[in-house]
Amino acid sequence: MSFVTSWIDETNNTISDATPAPTTALPVVGERAQAVIGEYVTYRYFVDIPAQTTVIGATLADTLPANLALDPAPPAPVVSPSLTFYPNAESATTASVPAGVSFDSATGTVDFTGGATPGEYRNITATDQRFEVLLTARVTASGLLSEEEPSRVNTVRFRSLDATLSPLPVVSDTATVDIRQP
């Protein structure tokens, strides 16, 4: 019912284009990136809501792993957390986020539960819609030994309910960053 993907932008570990092209121009899903302590890593993740579909109790959320801390106001030119809405998932055209969908920039969570019918978001259009998040995290040394160079797997999850309000299977994807010591 929905498609979720997540990746790390490898271009200097920052986003160079705030309005990315649709899926044909995206980096390879699951590719690895490297960063040293103090650098920023930007994750991009999205969910496509199919045409003529209602999602119930839905959220798109990213819980960062150890050694990656959300930075809600990073220094320029690093991109702050944001949500972009593509009314047609196959087009680079953007629009205002629809009523009933909210974004928490402190957590990177998209909430689809504020629609006209409480708890629901309805895509009543003839095209799939995309909700894409850019989330910037700073690599931290918290708990690392001086010789450690761990890999950290970040997972984004789309959760929703069926018509009986039972949880549907969680749809998720991952992106890996290798932390290098300076």
Which sequence of SSEs, written as H and E, runs from N to C?
A: EEEEEEEEEEEE
Radius of gyration: 17 Å
Count the DSSP helices. 0
Distance N to C terminus: 43 Å
Percentage beta strand = over 45%
Structural class: mainly beta
Mean pLDDT: 77
Report the biggest beta sheet as strand number plus sense, adding barrel if it closes.
7 strands, mixed
Weakly predicted, low-confidence segments: 1-31
Shape descriptor reads elongated
Helix content: under 10%
| Count of β-strands | 12
Walkthrough of the structure:
This protein is mostly beta strands. The protein is built from no helices and 12 strands. Strands 2, 4, 7, 8, 9, 11 and 12 form a 7-stranded mixed beta sheet that branches. Strands 1, 3, 5, 6 and 10 form a 5-stranded antiparallel beta sheet that branches. Strand 7 and strand 8 form a beta hairpin. It is elongated. The termini are far apart. Mean pLDDT is 77; it is low at 1-31.
